[in-house]
Amino acid sequence: MRRWVAGFAFFAAAFFATASGALLPISAVGQDDGKRPLFIRVDTDSEGKPRALQTAVATYEIESGAFKGAKVDLVGAVHVGERAYYQELNRRFKDYDAVLYELVAEADERPGLREERGGVNPIGSLQTGMKDVLKLSFQLEEVDYTVKNFVHADMSPEEFGKDMVKRKDGFVSMFARLMGAGFATQSSKKNTDLQAELMAAMLSRDPIKMRRAMAKQMETLDNQLVGLADKEGKSTLLTERNVKAFEVLERELKGGQRKVSIFYGAGHLLDMHDRMTRDFGARLTKIEWLDAWDLRTDALKK
């Protein structure tokens, strides 16, 4: 049972990473210490109790080259969250020249606001299932993708399929890699405790307990997603979609856009941070935190 729960947690975390009270920025923290930043975290109250799962809005300034002076925000997302979280994102997105968004789809295909989504999609089914279990909202039903400054910055289904075949990145093999990563770390006391908490939360069917347990799992998202990579350190789901996003970023910057955001699952952003600093000569100047999930015990009573 414990291994099944560990595997489920890794699987769910991976696909949360791919497409809360008053939801205003909790803090704005400059970061110039050379350390690789966090992009998702659990915030606690004054008594140390979980208060909110938070995602980052990280601001970068390009300091040299053809795009000097341009600012790029990496906007982390979880694909199910509080409705107010997505409303705050919609408000912020109005201020950018371009919002580069993730969605494995054709470039001219946009999800309509709160549209009914047909068909059978295993990732979408997982995410909408999590929405119902956790009593949250679904990103594709809340974010307004119809606005003019939204720019598709992800693979088409054909590109995605071809790349998966190229690196043998089927869902079974990716799940096996994640499971292997889970087995390698499950002997630690912290991981054992996290798995036990998740198991108890799932059995309780209490949405807040499940939110808290899953939030703690998602806090270790970067380490978990390392398990997706092949022997070359690449994966279709993560690094190669990031490559596509940064091709679109370069195109937009060449087109004269100077205030751009990349709106992607929080699990993508550590790799994107490395690409910003290494390939674009950018410096991280600020991180703001937004509440995505309310983790307080009375969250559903409001």
Describe this structure in words.
The protein has 302 residues and is of the alpha/beta class. It has one domain. Helix content is 44%, strand content 19%. It is built from eleven helices and ten strands. The strands form two sheets. Strands 1, 2, 3, 4, 6, 8, 9 and 10 form an eight-stranded mixed sheet that branches. A two-stranded antiparallel ribbon has the order 5-7. A hairpin with an 8-residue loop joins strand 3 and strand 4. The N terminus is likely disordered.
The quaternary organization reads as single chain
Q: How far from one another are the termini?
A: 35 Å
Number of domains: 1
In total, the number of strands is 10
Structural class of the helix and strand makeup? alpha/beta
Rg computed from alpha carbons, rounded to a whole number of angstroms: 19 Å
Q: Number of helical segments?
A: 11
Largest sheet: 8 strands, mixed
Helix percent reads 40-55%
State mean pLDDT (0 to 100 scale): 79
